[in-house]
Structure formats: C-alpha cells, structure tokens
Amino acid sequence: MRSSSEVAQCDLVYTFFHPIARDDRTEGFEGMPKPPEVMPVSPTSGRVEGEVKLSVSYRNSTLFIMVMHIKDLVSDDGDPNPYVKTYLLPDPHKTSKRKTKISRKTRNPTFNEMLVYSGYSKESLRQRELQLSVLSAESLRENYYLGGVTLGLQDFDLSKETVGWYKLTAVPYF
C-alpha cells in the first residue's frame, strides 16, 4: 500500500487487503525495527473495570492457567465479544502467546479454558510474569482492549493450586 498511513492502515483496508492479523503484524521482519504495538482502547472513555478469576497450578514442568470467569466488563459500545490473551514475560518473540475462545455479546463471560505452558522449571517461572489482556473481538473493526493484569509468578506457591479473582487495570498493552 503506497497511500498515506491513514488510508493504508484504516480498518476497511486491513479487513480486505492485509492477510496478517494485527496482533501479529510486527513479527517476521528481520532487521527492521518493530514499531510499538498499540491496541485501541475500549470505547469506554478510558474506564477499565472488572475482575478475572484464574486458577494457577504447576505439575511436571508445566504451568497451567485456567481462565475461569470475568465479571463486570465495561463497554459503552454495547456488549463486547471478550477473549483473553496471555504471555509469559519476558518474551521478545511472542512464543508464549495463548488465547481463549471468544465469548459472544457478554460483560460476564465464562471461559473455563486451560492455557498450558510446557517445559518450564519452577526456578525459571519465578523470574517471569504472566501478562493477561482482555480484548473484544470485532468483525468489522480492530479488536479493542478491555483491561488486563500482570502477575509476578514469584508471588505464587507453585506447589499447590491457587484460585483467585484479580482486578483488571488499564495496563499498557504489549
């Protein structure tokens, strides 16, 4: 696309002419600097509310993150289509990205989906953070950010399952 960035990067052009999903667009260009990835904020006047219920457990060199429920999401644009995306940070190549399925038209979704990270020792996990983002999947425009939380895995007792509610905040999106 040789048009202005306003035209080349508009949602309509992306929908029909760009085969790469926007959250993967910075991958694969060796030697070129990656532009900072910016996720559109929810059309909620900057408000972020809600909580996510997670179960975190570890067995046999595998970290299990059960995304159970989210409650009280905010969206002024009708009911969102929420899904959860997680990373184990630091992760410069985005190899730890995991996603749940999309839950349609709800502010209080139930996922009950297990996100699995295999091949990690307890010691290496203690030096990582779990970054969780809640986004709304939109068919005719770019997905938007509803909130997130970053949890230091050193704060968890990995010898047992931990279940809890975590408040979503307006953390910057990576």
From TrEMBL:
Pfam families noted in UniProt: C2 (PF00168)
SUPFAM superfamilies on file: C2 domain (Calcium/lipid-binding domain, CaLB) (SSF49562)
Source taxon at top rank: Eukaryota
Matching InterPro entries: C2_dom (IPR000008), C2_domain_sf (IPR035892)
GO MF entry, a single one: neurexin family protein binding
SMART domains xref list: C2 (SM00239)
Coiled coil stretches, renumbered: none
GO terms classed as biological process: exocytosis
Domain spans labelled C2: 48-166
Protein name, per record: C2 domain-containing protein
